[in-house]
Amino acid sequence: MNKNTKKTGLAVICVAVLGMLATWVIKDQIVRHRRDLFSQKFLRRLAALGHMAKVEASVDNINLMRDFILWEKKETLKERARLIISRMEQETLASDIPSL
Length: 100
Fold this sequence. Notes:
- This protein is mainly α.
- It has one domain.
- It is built from four helices and no strands.
- The protein has helices at residues 3-36, 42-52, 59-71, 75-96.
């Protein structure tokens, strides 16, 4: 093998490892935000709601938010969750309608 081939191979391996590491970090953040939705700390729950406001609408996410509303005691956070559910339901319905 020549020197350029070794360098290219090493670069490809490094990029692959960095990609796997980035994927792992992103998955960890998603799990952490979902877990923080049921945190005892108000600011963590608020931050988790902010994250949930940006995620893609899905049945799992809608059900998670409904569970949160049943669990949550503060009306301000419940109202925020209701708005998020409303947005997610609209997106879900819009994706079910075939475009002409």
